[in-house]
Amino acid sequence: MAPNKRPAKRAANRAANRPNSRTTPSKQPTKLGARASKSVFEQSNIKNGKLQRHTDNHANNKAVCEPVICEPMRVAKAIARAGLCSRREAERWIKAGRVRLNGKLLLTPAQTVSPGDELYVDDVLLPATLTIRLWRYHKPRGRLTTRSDPQGRPTIFDDLPSELANVITIGRLDYNTEGLLLLTNHGGLARHLELPATAVKRRYRVRAHGHITQQALDELAQGITIDGTHFAPAQATLERQVGQNCWLNITLTEGKNHEVKRLLGTLGLTVNRLIRTHYGPIELGALEAGKTAEIALSALGRLSPFEPRGKLR
Q1: How many CB atoms lie within 10 A of CB 27?
Q2: In a domain, 16, yes or no
Q3: Which of 123, 159, 174, 218 is catalytic?
Q4: pLDDT in tens, 253-267
Q5: Looking at 159-223, which runs of residues are DSSP E strands?
Q6: Is the Cα torsion angle 158, 163, 166, 172 positive or negative in sign?
Q7: Do 106 and 254 sit in the same domain of this protein?
Q8: 64 has which bridge partners?
Q9: What is the rounded end-to-end Cα distance, in angstroms, of the chain?
Q10: Is residue 61 one of the residues assigned to a domain?
C-alpha cells in the first residue's frame, strides 16, 4: 500500500503560511472603523502657542463621554467644554483669528455653534466627544480655591499641571484648609456633587485649641442654629487630647462657609488645623500635598449622576 501523503502535504502548507518571526512584517495603515473610532478619544494640547492633537491614553471601554457640542451654544463655551482653555481665553483666540466655523473665519465671539457644525482651532478640528474625567487633589495649606486673586495670594491653579489648567473644582476649601479636593472637566458633574440635595458626606480631621468631651460633641448630632443660620446634624468623635489641643473627626453633609469652625466654636473650641480626608466614598489616602491622581467615575458609586450609558440622569 502506498503511503498517505496528505498529512505531509498539510504540514508543508502550514509551514508555508506561518509568518517568519525573523523577518519584520510590513506595516499596513490601520483603518479605524466606526466601532474602533469610538474607543479612541482625541484630546487637544497647546504647544508653542498652537493647538496640537494627541491620542488620550486614558480612553477605555468604561470611559463616560458625551458630545462636546451637545446643544446650541456659544463658540467660546464649546471650546472651553473641549478642555482647551477658559471661555475668556477662547474669546481672545476668536478675536485673534485662530477659530473657524464650517470653514469660515470667526472674528467675533457672538456666534452660536450647533451639533453637526465643524469647529476648528488653529486648523485642528475640535474633538467630537468629551471624555468626562475626575481627579483627586491634595490641596496644601495657604492656597485659594480660585483662578486668580486681586491680592496676589497663591491659588491651587499655580501648582496644577498644565493639562489641568481648565478643570472645575467640586466645591471649595478655605485658604488655610488642606486635604482632599475633587477636580473635573464636566460642569454638570461638579454641580451635582455640590448640591445640598445630593447630601455628600464630607469628613474632616480637626485640630482645635481647647478641651472637649465626647458628650459635648454629641450635641452636634441634633443640628444647631447659629446667628439665624441652621446647620444640619454633624457626627463628631474625639480622637485624643494633646496638651491644650484636641484632635477630632467630624462628618458633614452640607458645605456651608466656615461650617466646621462655626460648629466647634459654639463648643468653645478654636480650630487651628483642618484637613478634609473624604468626599463621599473617595479618600485622600496617601496622596502627597500638591499632587493629583486621576480616578475612575465608578469610584463615586451611587453618587454618580450618570446612567450606565453615560448620560446624566
Answers
A1: 6
A2: no
A3: 174
A4: 988 889 999 999 999
A5: 168-170, 178-184, 202-209
A6: negative
A7: no
A8: 132
A9: 76
A10: yes
